[in-house]
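Protocol check, entry for the methods section draft. Step 1: assemble the input record (protein sequence plus ligand SMILES). Step 2: submit for complex structure prediction. Step 3: store the structure tokens unaltered in the notebook. Ligand used here: NAI. Step 1 record:
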Amino acid sequence: MKIAIIGAGNLGLSIAKGLIVNNAFTTLVLTRRNLEEIQEYEEYAKVKVTTDNMEAVQYSDILIFAVQPTQLERILEEIKDDLTEKHVLISTVTGYKISSMESLVGKEQFIIRAMPNTAIAVGKSMTCLCCNEIGEKRITIAEAIFNRLGSSIIIPENKMQAATVICASGIAFWMRLIRATTQGGVQLGFDAEDAQELSMQTCLGAASLLIESGKHPEEEIDKVTTPRGCTIEGLNEMEHNGLSSSLIKGIQASFKKINTITTN
Ligand SMILES: NC(=O)C1=CN([C@@H]2O[C@H](COP(=O)(O)OP(=O)(O)OC[C@H]3O[C@@H](n4cnc5c(N)ncnc54)[C@H](O)[C@@H]3O)[C@@H](O)[C@H]2O)C=CC1
Ligand SMILES: O=C(O)[C@@H]1CCC=N1
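Step 3, stored output:
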């Protein structure tokens, strides 16, 4: 696959790393306004960096847009005359609707929206996808890319904002929980490095157990909570202090915010 990432910033570079580590492209073009930060990527075989989006379009079949919402419109205006029927446009841009992209590049262009998270750099992103009508003919290409770099599901476009909160912002929420449990571990006497290792591996174990068993979290929690034991003591104290409620309220606040920053 001849892939271009238009806007190799935080997310764009995470996608690039995932593609490179998984050898998941034929050619890869990375664009950015300032090349200094991405020059090192040219050391990888078949990777090119440029400031020229038009060149990236001409050189590639799959165009992944990873720019800020306010930057996308200008870029689509810039490249639209160079788009052909071979191009598949994949936008990771938050809150930028398919209909707005269609109004700039036309309904006949294959358009897919993807909402990955930065774990795509290590092939572990949960990515939500949706597409325009004609894009259904190419959605399997997007699934192939994002399944190689984690897991993907197809959702209706009206759930993309919620998906952004749960998956894209969500990775930051989980990392904060890892940090908090690390701090708890330090207070119990582990050095910071060991405490983080214990916390990360336990988090990975919890997710893996649920993924592999298909069980509900409470069923697995019941196996851990010895009656009158230390686990239920800790869990109840956390709940008295609003753990679940705080997470749910945070998710709601994030969702409220994302609906205010939607640009179209
Ligand atoms: N950072 C994240 O974890 C996630 C971000 N997103 C969305 O992905 C998009 C990108 O986010 P980030 O990577 O965090 O932003 P960023 O600001 O780190 O990256 C955007 C990059 O685009 C470049 N750029 C701007 N105008 C350009 C142009 N005309 N041509 C080429 N490059 C240009 C900028 O120099 C910058 O490096 C946003 O819409 C964001 O909402 C979605 C999911 C997760
Ligand atoms: O925080 C944000 O607004 C963007 C969207 C999801 C991740 N980063």
